[in-house]
C-alpha cells in the first residue's frame, strides 16, 4: 500500500486522522493533513481506505 495526498486541496477536516490515527495526523498550525506512515502495514488497509472515502476533499489516493 502506498498513500499520496494533495495537501494543497486538503480542507483540514481531520477526518483522516480520526479514522486512521496511526497513518494520518494534522499540522498543529492549520490542520492540514500530515502523513505519519507513507507505507503503512496491511492491518491499516481498511482504515486507510475508509479515510480516503470519507475525506470531504477527496484528496487521499491509495495504491
Ligand atoms: S480527511 Fe481529507 S480534507 Fe480532511 S484533513 Fe484528511 S486529507 Fe485533509
UniProtKB/TrEMBL annotation:
The keyword Metal-binding applies. Keywords: 3Fe-4S, Electron transport, Iron, Iron-sulfur, Metal-binding, Transport. It comes from the Bacteria. The keyword Magnesium does not apply. InterPro entries: 3Fe4S_ferredoxin, Fe-S_cluster_ET. Pfam families: Fer4_13 (PF13370). Its cofactor is [3Fe-4S] cluster. Ferredoxins are iron-sulfur proteins that transfer electrons in a wide variety of metabolic reactions. This is Ferredoxin.
Amino acid at each position: 500500500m502506498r498513500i499520496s495526498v494533495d495537501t494543497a486541496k486538503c480542507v483540514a477536516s481531520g477526518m483522516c486522522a480520526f479514522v486512521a490515527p496511526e497513518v494520518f495526523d494534522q499540522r498543529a498550525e492549520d490542520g492540514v493533513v500530515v502523513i505519519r506512515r507513507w507505507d503503512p502495514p496491511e492491518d491499516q488497509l481498511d482504515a486507510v481506505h475508509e479515510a480516503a472515502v470519507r475525506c470531504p476533499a477527496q484528496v487521499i489516493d491509495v495504491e
